[in-house]
Design goal:
With 307 residues, the protein is an alpha/beta fold. It has 9 helices and 13 strands. It binds S-adenosylmethionine (SAM). Residues 32-36, 55-58, 61, 83-85, 103-106, 175-178 line the site of S-adenosylmethionine.
């Protein structure tokens, strides 16, 4: 019943055909971290001819949004359960997005958590790439330093014209977090950046879209079992670890966590006997984005378990 709203982006070849997924063309607006979905729903109601895409990392929020969309019978919203930074970069073609909204992002104030913040040079380059000319980025937050840091990066890029403002005791986006901070007397800060120049970015999932798999004549069981807790650290940007090894008659299932430049995924690699040989591949129960590290993990595991 809710399936039409949830886009399982990992199952498609990137970039996604958003017009195909909506079944129509129209302006494209993206919200990162939609939370309870108030902003997405309100805007989708007010702009029925616009296609809205939301990203969230919380399954609870995702389910809540789908229920609301279904109850309201809406057709112009789709949602992806993924890191919004990664999604915006990998799932959209250049110059196809009209506007990107972020409302009350988690600020991650500790220096040790800096990498978890939404803004970075890569994020700004992504905006300057996927937004149409004159497309806009909108940030609303209660954290002034967060807004200023984001503004500095946008200005430094020379790709945006930036405007900032403050709102006291006033609803700007009417989300759950806005209500919470206003009720505590906080000031709400907003930023709007209009794209004036493009940037180019490299996508890590757009080339070589093959599902990684390897056929092996023989597999050494001891070598498979020895993979538990083994870390493969190719370079700074690419790391994977085999967290667990489960065995069954004629097959092994390896739980793997990979990181591509900080973008983490968890999935299973299956080693399965097929007649007299073996196949090593991603287990279909957990489909990750096919990043360079995900592909590397399948090939490397196959390399080290051969007998
Ligand atoms: C502080 S809440 C704000 C929610 C909503 N925008 C609002 O104004 O009420 C931040 C939301 O961002 C989501 N989030 C955090 N990191 C994210 C990421 N990298 N990509 C997508 N969503 C993310 C969290 O799960 C959470 O729902």
């Amino acid at each position: 019943m809710f399936a039409k709203y949830h886009v399982k982006a990992q199952e498609f070849d990137p970039p996604l055909d958003w017009e195909g997924l909506f079944g129509r063309s129209g302006p494209l607006v993206v919200e990162l971290g939609f939370g309870s979905g108030e902003f997405l729903i309100q805007n989708a109601i007010e702009h029925p001819s616009t296609n809205f895409v939301g990203f969230e990392t919380s399954l609870t929020c995702m389910v809540k949004l789908q229920k609301s969309l279904s109850r309201l019978g809406m057709n112009n919203v789709r949602a992806v359960l993924s890191d919004g930074k990664f999604g915006l970069k990998e799932l959209f073609r250049d110059k196809t997005v009209d506007a990107v909204y972020v409302n009350f992002p988690c600020p991650w104030p500790k220096e040790a958590h800096r990498n978890r913040r939404l803004y970075s040079k890569t994020f700004v380059d992504t905006l300057a790439s996927v937004l149409k000319d004159q497309g806009s980025f909108h940030l609303t937050t209660d954290v002034q330093w967060y807004l200023k840091d984001t503004a500095s990066l946008l200005i430094e890029s020379e790709c945006f014209s930036v405007k900032m403002s403050e709102a006291l005791n006033k609803n700007v986006v009417s989300t759950r977090y806005e209500k919470k901070w206003l009720s505590r007397g906080k000031v709400i800060y907003t930023l709007m950046a209009v794209k004036i120049k493009s940037a180019s970015i490299k996508r890590i999932t757009w080339e070589d879209k093959e599902m990684p798999h390897v056929h092996l004549k023989n597999v050494c069981e001891d070598k498979v079992k020895a993979l538990r807790d083994k870390v493969f650290h190719e370079d700074q940007e690419s790391v994977f670890v085999v967290k667990n090894v489960y065995s069954n008659v004629d097959e092994f299932l390896l739980r793997v966590i990979s990181s591509d430049n900080g973008f983490q995924q968890c999935y299973f690699v299956l080693i399965q006997k097929r007649g007299k040989s073996y196949i090593v591949k991603i287990d279909p129960s957990t489909i990750p984005y096919r990043t360079p590290t995900v592909k590397k993990s399948v090939f490397k595991i196959a390399e080290v378990i051969q007998s």
